[in-house]
Structures are given as structure tokens and as C-alpha cells.
Input
Amino acid sequence: MSIELPPLPFADDALEPHMSAHTLALHHDKHQAGYVAKLNALIENGPLAALPLEQVINASEDDLARKDIYNNAAQVWNHTFFWNSLSPGGSNKPDGALAAAIDKDFGSLAAFKEAFTKMAVGAFGSGWIWLVSEAGKLGIIKTSNAETPVGSHRVPLATLDVWEHAYYVDYENRRPDYVAAFLDKLINWDFAARNLEKAQAI
Ligand code: FE2
Output
């Protein structure tokens, strides 16, 4: 069994004009596909070859000898989670339990967006910004490079890729505009709400 590249959960022009088909073609078909190919080359014929992706991440996370495996496996997982964090219908507002949790833990949706923006714009280098649920409380965290919270005590609800390859074609160096488009037009609140339900069931 090898790790497969999942298709995008929407057409590659479905996020226009906020994320172009060109960006998605590069990002999914070249970058994520590249991580999948490298990962499969690294694990083929080895002890991790038959494992599902999350177990490959788990088995390589704290093993320096498997750092390349971890980086590529985490990047495959993070990107698939990122695509699902985007909504082609344009962002509406969170509702129900997720809206209540955002109000409780951040003060308001506007305050959440402000805190998320501050972390995403200020993040140095490559990485990911995550809305997570941790011990019954929502939080925002940054992970560097390929690092992923999957399998940790922090349950991811949604993520934003802040590697330059995610936005440079559409926004050049204007990362704040990319972050604003994510929060105001693209974030998939239904996906985040489903992940919160799962976190609360753990
Ligand atoms: Fe990326």
C-alpha cells in the first residue's frame, strides 16, 4: 500500500478570485503531490510502508532518523486538512456550538479573527496557523515548517498554510491580504464545527 494524493474537494477554479486555479494547480498538483511522491519513495519496502498516513506520522514524529519521513508525511496530512478548511461557497459565519465556543474563548468572532491575523501575519518563516481545541478550550497555534498537531492533545479544527507557495502567485508578498481572504471568504466553518464535535466526543 502506498500513500495516495487525495483529489481536491472542489474544482480548481472554485475558490476564484480569492485563490486562483493556477495557485491550486501548483499547490495541490505539484507541491502536495511532491510530498506524496517523496514520502512513498522514503517508506517503500520499509517497516512503515503498509501503515496509514496518521500512523506513519506517529511512528516518525520523535525519531531523528525518520525526520524526512515525518516532514513529508506531515505535509501530506496538513495539506489535505487545509483543502478541507476551505469552502468554495465563500465564508459564512460559524453557528451553534462553534460560534458559542468562539465567543466564550476569544470574546467574539472579530476578536478571534484579530488574534488569528496577528499570529498568521507575524509568523516568521514557513508554517501553519491552526484553530485548535485543547482540553475543552479553543486556541490558535503556529507550527513551523511541516510540524503538525495531528495525534497530539491539540485537536485541529481548521488551518491556514502560510508557506509562501500558498499565496505568492495570487498575493505576492501581501500575506495580510491572503489571511484576510481566508478569514472573510474562504474558511470552511462547517468543517471546523464537525471537528469540534469530534473533539468534544473524545
Ligand atoms: Fe503548502
